[in-house]
Amino acid sequence: MSTKEKTLEELLLQEEVVTQNEIVLFNDDVNTFDHVIETLIYACEHTPEQAEQCAILVHYKGKCTVKTGAYNDLKPRCSLLLEAGLSAEII
Question: Which ranges carry the Adaptor protein ClpS core domain (predicted)?
Fold first, then answer.
């Protein structure tokens, strides 16, 4: 094996594995569609259309992944959802 191939092999092994976490929003019998939509727009930076689709999925399926990303980005967003009275968790 040449030196060039060995160096390339070592570089490939050093790639960082990025784990993606998810905020999952759960259905409840308390919050209105409008409240859920407004909160998703504010906390998760959804467009109105995205927020409405998520609200519908949560209503009919019981839960929906509303945001994916690094844990440090999701934690404050999930906290905003919880403070607004929604049921959510990071998985």
Answer: 22-83
In a domain, 86, yes or no: yes
Give the Cα separation of 91 and 86 in Å (integer).
16
Poorest-pLDDT segment among 17-26, 28-37, 38-47, 62-71? 17-26
Q: How far apart are CA 18 and CA 71, in angstroms?
A: 11
66 closest CA partner among 36, 26, 23: 23
The pTM (predicted TM-score) of the whole model is: 0.80
- Specify the CATH number for the domain of residue 64: 3.30.1390.10
